[in-house]
Amino acid sequence: MSVTRIVWSREAARAFVTPAVYATLVIFAAASAGCFVAALQFGEGGFWSLPALWTLSVGLTLPVLAAMATMRLFAGERSAGTLTSLLTVPAPEREILMGKYLAALGTVLLGLAGAIVPWLLLRRALPYGMPPITTLTGPLLVLCLQALSLTALGTLASVLARQSWSAAAGTMLTVMAAALIWGACARFFPEVRGRAPLFPFLIELLDAASGRIALSSLVMHGSLTWGLLFASKRLLEARTWH
Question: Is the pTM of this model over 0.85?
């Protein structure tokens, strides 16, 4: 059995016997469902499609889920004093990292699966007023790609942080800072505004809700995930967290 699988099994087993993961999933489900209901109320009679409203509701709350799912990966080990013993195991740091990353990614994907429930309930209550669940195939695919990047970002924040709460805060602040920087560039640089007036994560969600999925999304999230995990691995190898 590989070290990655052992670490993944350890993390998954430990996660689902504590209330933290369940609280994370409940908070995300409540936040995404609340955003969806609010969007339905404010968007009634507008030009927004139902898949677009659901996609944006889930996409805007996805960073919160990723931050909560990853904040304890390494920061929790550090605060408990077990990180040193974990990294002295005769195994490559990349395998330990991947095991923890995949466990957190599983939690995030489980949260995304749960976010479909409000749509199914509305579909059952209004069988002729709601589009079929298959209309969410594209949005779910893009949300899964974003989950890869956001979970990798949360993993890096957990490697850098000394406390779990600071890892979660670092993940959220990084996402918000990226959106603000992009918005500032779009405002002051016409060439940026002409090519992408909105944050790329939002653009690809809206495109997916209308049935368009670009290859650039796969390339972007694949590159982001690889780069963030590579940086995490190098930090663990260098032991810069002491």
Answer: yes
